[in-house]
Amino acid sequence: MSTLTVEQIIERVDRIPRLPSTAVRLVSVVCDPGSSITEIVDAIRFDQAVTADVLRLCNSAYFGLSRRVDSLEAATRLLGTAKILQLVMAAHTRSLLGRAQSGYGLAPGALWEHSVAVAHGSQLYARQFGLGQLGMRFTAGLLHDIGKVVLNEFVGAEYAEIVRCVSHGEVSFIEAEQSVLGLTHAEVGARLGEEWSLPEELIRCIRHHHSPDALPEPDPAVDAVHLADATCLLMGIGGGEVDGLAYRVHPDVLQRREVSQRGLESIGAEVVAEVRAVRALLAGNS
Amino acid sequence: MANLVVDIADYAVSKDPEAVLITYSLGSCIGVTIWDPVVHVAGMLHYMLPESSLSPEKAKASPAMFCDTGVPRLFRAAYELGAVKKRLVVKVAGGSQLLDENGTFNIGKRNYLALRKIFWKNGVMVDGEDVGGAISRTVRLQVGTGEVTIKTRNREVPL
Q1: Closest residue to A265, CB basis, from B54, B99, B134
Q2: In terms of residue numbers, what domain contains A223?
Q3: Disulfide engineering: B9 pairs with which of A2, B65, B109, B159, CB 3.0-4.6 Å?
Q4: CB contact, 8 Å: A260 with chain B?
């Protein structure tokens, strides 16, 4: 395993399902601040399954809308583009992220739930930092651990070794990954994002969600994902059994973003409520 | 055996002797178990934050999210099933932290202190606890026997 490079791993991952093309198209449209509602609708309308999903979700009790929504245009106007993106992305990454990540000791659904939690958290932190394009912040959080889906296929006996490293104490999960496998899920995820032609900004969030200080300039979008990840793992929101708390929060990030205890607690409380709502909303929709 | 899963920011009580109350991935959150050995009533709470003053609306919607609203709720629900306060066996787990604590992320410790305070005020004794560290815990409580186990990584031990 340690002799494989990221490239060799990516080459071998023909079994990894692709991110649905509708989702990829939608990400790039929403990431462009100049996009109109028509362009967003165009990115979805040719995918009947997604259109049906969006309308069904819009008309669910969760949104409590007073009248029936029967077109994508109306749905987008009523809920806003960020919400539409959230719905589509959360629903469509479920098959990809929802499988058991046995290589990582994660039960079915655990990685997806953690990803949805970090997506909401990233969006909340990003808003606190005054960032726009909240749909993109959500997506960055949703895809931050996508590399685990790939590495999971390759992590076998090495997993025990990673767990041993982490159990010994002062080593974070990603440090153990690096020392045992010679690469990390962050790097593999970023390479996968490149394969999928995701926007550069998303790839940067995936690559640096554990290493926000490795960037030449601090990036608030990356910091948002890093803090959301730490918050969710700390509180055990969709957390795994092993890497749960073996996480290093970068003190510089806390300092430059002026994260207070109260702010952190509020975001945690908000995220738990959101994850519960999304879980209920998508129940029976897998 | 029926597993009754207690989600984050939630609680459950039961007097079904076959049931097992279980809560997963306790990080900085705290799991409280109570059990009455005479009537075999069991309860479990998984709260995530110390004080409801953070958000009264959230506390109203889900009281089990906070220590100060969740703990009374858990005890009252057990009393309704016939449990008696002075007989309760009370156990506590969780309150972990991340590596490299610098204060902001020490919710685990604050959660634990909030619990000590409310127990002290109400004269509740703790019969067993497994708190702190940088680990994730899963807690099981057998309603019929009151046995509590803590699972960390691949190890499961009685508390």
Answers
A1: B54
A2: 6-18+110-282
A3: B65
A4: yes
Q: Are residues A175 and A263 in the same domain?
A: yes
Higher pLDDT, A144 or A27: A144
pTM (2 decimals)? Answer: 0.86
Interatomic CA distance for residues A140 and A118, integer angstroms: 9
Q: Do A242 and B26 touch (CB under 8 A)?
A: no
Per the CB < 8 Å rule, is A230 touching B98?
Answer: yes
- Confirm if B43 and B105 have CB atoms less than 8 A apart: no
Q: What is the pLDDT of residues A63-83, one digit of tens each?
A: 777 778 888 888 888 877 777
**What is the spatial distance between Cα A126 and Cα B62, in angstroms, rounded to a whole number?**
26
pLDDT digits (tens, 9 = 90+) for A195-253: 878 889 999 999 999 999 999 999 999 999 999 999 998 898 865 555 567 777 888 89
Q: Which of A38, A58, A92 is the last residue in one of the domains?
A: A92
The answer to the question of residue A165 being in a domain is: yes
Helix axis angle, B67-80 relative to B107-121, nearest 10°? 50
What is the interface size between A and B, counted as CB pairs within 8 Å?
106
Does A14 share its domain with A143? Answer: yes
Q: What ipTM was estimated for this complex?
A: 0.91
The predicted-structure confidence for B22-80, as pLDDT tens digits, reads as follows: 998 899 999 999 999 999 999 999 999 999 999 999 999 999 999 999 999 999 999 99
The three-point CA angle A185-A186-A189 to 5° equals: 80
The answer to whether A110 and A152 are in contact (CB under 8 A) is no
CATH (domain of B61): 3.30.1330.200
How many domains in chain A? Answer: 2
Same domain, A32 and A13: no
Which amino acid would we find at residue B13? V
Q: To probe the interface with B, which of A234, A257, A261, A274 has the most B CB atoms within 10 Å?
A: A234
Interface of B with A (CB under 8 A): 7-9, 24-29, 48-49, 54-55, 58, 61-62, 65, 96-100, 102-105, 107-108, 110, 134-136, 138, 153-154
Determine the 3-state secondary structure of B156 from DSSP.
strand
Q: Is residue A103 part of a domain?
A: no
Choose the closest CB to A249 out of B29, B61, B98: B98
Distance from CA of A160 to the nearest CA of B (A): 11
The verdict on a CB contact (< 8 Å) between B27 and A163 is no
Q: Please give the residue that has the higher pLDDT: either A136 or A105.
A: A136
Q: Is residue A173 part of a domain?
A: yes
Q: How far is CA B156 from the centre of its chain?
A: 17
**Over chain A, what is the mean pLDDT?**
80
pLDDT higher for A25 or B68?
Answer: B68
Closest-approach residue (CA) in chain A for B155 = A241
Number of domains in chain B: 1
Residue B50, domain extent: 3-158
